[in-house]
Specification:
two-stranded antiparallel sheet, 7 helices, single chain, mainly alpha, 60% helix
């Protein structure tokens, strides 16, 4: 029998334990600090572009009309692991212990995701309404920006995992 996957509460507890044990050393590491700063800037660029293109407003309207049936539906939080949650703690982003909007992802708040470091699905997925609402050049710009954010997220998570003793392969 396959062991049950850890609950989101267990993964959050693991992230806090990793932060308590390794956070000071990770934050003292110049390479980690540099990538954290660059990643924070890239996330801000993505969110600003989404706001300017009207994607934030479009998603908010959809979430209001389709409780629990949106991209940020209940259970999405289960896709997160302790390392991605640890990145949020390193970025000084609190991890919500409870859902602000019942029937949705526990990390979704009234103004969008309450996390800085988001799951790759949450960054990259665009339902059919988004490209339909954008000019092709704007859609391409958004996809390129999402890719830039995801690339830095991948580099940062890989570096943090390596600093914690993880080896690929």
């Amino acid at each position: 029998m396959t062991p049950a996957a850890p609950s989101i509460a267990e993964k959050i507890a693991r992230a806090h334990a990793l932060m308590a044990r390794h956070g000071p050393a990770l934050l003292a590491d110049g390479e980690v600090r540099d990538l954290l700063a660059r990643y924070r800037e890239e996330v801000a660029r993505t969110r600003d572009l989404m706001r300017r293109l009207g994607v934030v407003a479009l998603c908010a309207r959809c979430a209001e009309r389709t409780p629990g049936g949106t991209c940020c539906g209940e259970g999405i939080e289960d896709w997160y692991d302790e390392y991605l949650l640890l990145l949020n703690l390193l970025l000084e982003t609190p991890i919500p212990e409870e859902s602000a909007l019942p029937g949705h992802c526990r990390f979704l708040g009234p103004a969008g995701c309450r996390l800085t470091a988001r799951h790759d699905f949450c960054v990259n997925y665009l339902c059919h309404r988004v490209p339909e609402s954008l000019a092709p050049a704007a859609h391409a710009r958004l996809q390129a920006q999402n890719g830039a954010e995801l690339f830095l997220a991948w580099r940062l998570e890989r570096l943090v995992r390596e600093r914690l003793g993880w080896r690929p392969g």
